[in-house]
Amino acid sequence: MTATHGISVDVRTPDGVADAYLTSPADGGAHPGVLVIQDGFGLRPSLRALADRIAAGGYTVLLPNAYYRHGPAPVIELPDFIDPAQRPEIFQQVFPMIRDLTPELWRSDTGAYLDWLAASPQVTAGKAGVTGYCMGARLAVLTAAMFPDRVAAAAGFHGGPLVTDTADSPHRSVGNITGELYFAHAGEDDHMTAEHIGAFDKALADAGVRHRTEVYAGAHHGFTQADTSAYEPEAAERHYRELLALFDRTLRP
């Protein structure tokens, strides 16, 4: 594995300052930029480790605290091991913050995140890659649709909801996407049923978006998150392989 170097950074947005984690290969050179979008539990050590793993593939990775309007990370107190069945109050704390992060606010924030990456001397010129987890997968779709001229590839893992009845459902925005998409759904996930997956795939196909979607059979919602009860090592390793393959073919000359 390539050695990486990570630091805490601040990213100024139109609404304030987002605390973030920046990690890249320790060679001191410039590398393609990647934006990692958190899951619902927020910026924490396990997500920093995930960002390091992506950086080890040869990328400069920015992982912002999407909840920065509610305070610096950790915004809520989290146990070292998250088992929602044992700690249901965690969801009661994070759901209001998830609802507060509207598409309009996300557009504003993501513009700042992409600007920050583009201005960093640690990032090569060119479009960025995006990957998101759980709620972050939904935001990854929106990012690719909102900034088609700045996003070369977007990925999402155990995401949801990607298909809803609302006007701002992510699947309704995909007509703007010009980059390549990869989405991996958990086989055991009420957030993305077979019907939802079918509707999402149809929207991508109808829009002519280059994409591949897969269902990781037997995996549960959250399978990439190493500090949760949903973590599944084999599915997580598959996610890294597919994600780095996507970025390698889209972000490198």
How would you characterize the overall build of this protein?
An 8-stranded mixed β-sheet has the order 1-2-4-3-5-6-7-8, with helices on both faces. The model has no long low-confidence stretch (mean pLDDT 96). It has helices at 45-55, 89-100, 103-119, 135-146, 194-207, 233-250; strands spanning 4-13, 16-25, 33-37, 60-64, 128-133, 151-157, 180-188, 211-220. 33% of the residues lie in helices and 25% in strands. It has 253 residues and is of the alpha/beta class. The protein has 6 helices and 8 strands; from the N terminus they run βββαβααβαββαβα.
Write the layout of secondary structure elements.
Layout: E1 4-13, E2 16-25, E3 33-37, H1 45-55, E4 60-64, H2 89-100, H3 103-119, E5 128-133, H4 135-146, E6 151-157, E7 180-188, H5 194-207, E8 211-220, H6 233-250
Parallel strand pairs: 3-4, 3-5, 5-6, 6-7, 7-8
Antiparallel strand pairs: 1-2, 2-4
Helix pairs in contact: 3-4
Domain Dienelactone hydrolase: 19-249
Protein name: Dienelactone hydrolase family protein
GO molecular function, one term: hydrolase activity
Q: What is the tally of helical segments? A: 6
What Rg do the Cα atoms give? 17 Å
Q: What percentage of residues falls in helices of 4 or more residues?
A: 25-40%
Count of extended strands: 8
Structural class: alpha/beta
End-to-end distance, in Å? 22 Å
Enzyme class: hydrolase
InterPro entries: AB_hydrolase_fold, Dienelactn_hydro, Dienelactone_hydrolase-like
Keywords: Hydrolase
Protein name: Dienelactone hydrolase family protein
